[in-house]
Write a structure and sequence with these properties.
- The protein is about 40% helix and about 15% strand.
- The protein has 9 helices and 6 strands; from the N terminus they run βααβαβαββααβααα.
- It has a 6-stranded mixed sheet, with helices on both faces.
- Strand 4 and strand 5 form a beta hairpin.
- Helix 1 packs across helix 2 and helix 2 packs antiparallel against helix 8.
- It is globular, with a radius of gyration of 17 Å.
Amino acid sequence: MENRQTAILVFSRSAIAESKHKRLAHTQSQTQELAAQMIKHTKSTVSATDLPFFIISEEQQRGQNFGEKMANAFQDVFARGFNNVIAVGNDCISLSALDIIYAADVLQKSEAVIGPTLDGGAYLIGLTQNSFDFEAFKNLAWQSSATFEHLFEYFNLFLTIPTVLAYKADVDCISDWNLALQSVSLQFKTRILTILKNAESVPSKFDLIYNNSYFELPSSLRAPPVFQ
C-alpha cells in the first residue's frame, strides 16, 4: 500500500510488564505467555499493512501518567515527518490489517478515525497532525469506560466528526477471552486456548470454545456497522 504520509504507532507494554498489570490467566507466568502471543499477533497484523510502524513500549514511553505517555508517543511519531498517525495496542486481537488500512485511507480525506471497544475504550485512534493538541489530548479520560466518548468530544474541538469503525472486544482480564476469541483465526485461537487449558483452574466455558463450540454473541453486545 502506497501511503507514506501515515505511520502506525503500536503503544504497548512488554509481555513482562503486562503480566504485572493484568490478569489474563490464573498465574503470572501464563499471563506473560499470553501477552507475548498478543504482542506477536499485533506485530504480524501491523506488518501486513505495509505501512511504517513504531513500537513504543514502557522503555520508550515518557510521562507521569498514561495520558502524557500517549500524547508524547503521538508527538514523537509526528516529529518523524508523518502527517497521520494510527495508534493501536495489543489487547484487541480481532483487529485486522484491513481495519488499519481502511483507517489510513480515511485519514487521507478527513481528520480522525476511532475504533471503539465494547467497554467504552478505543482499540484504534487515528488522527492528523492538524487535529493533535498535546495538552487537550493528554488530559482525556484515558483507560476508562468514557475514553471513546471523550475522544469524540476532543475531535469536536477541531470541528470534525471522526469516522467510527465497528465495535470490537478487547482483552483486559481472563473473563474477556470468551468474547474476544470468537473473531480470530482458528490458528491463533488454538494457541491462546492451549495456554489457558494449561492453567491451574480454567472456567468450564473455555472447554466449549476449545472444542470448537462457539457462543452466541449477546444481542446487547452486537457491534453496530461502521458509520461516519
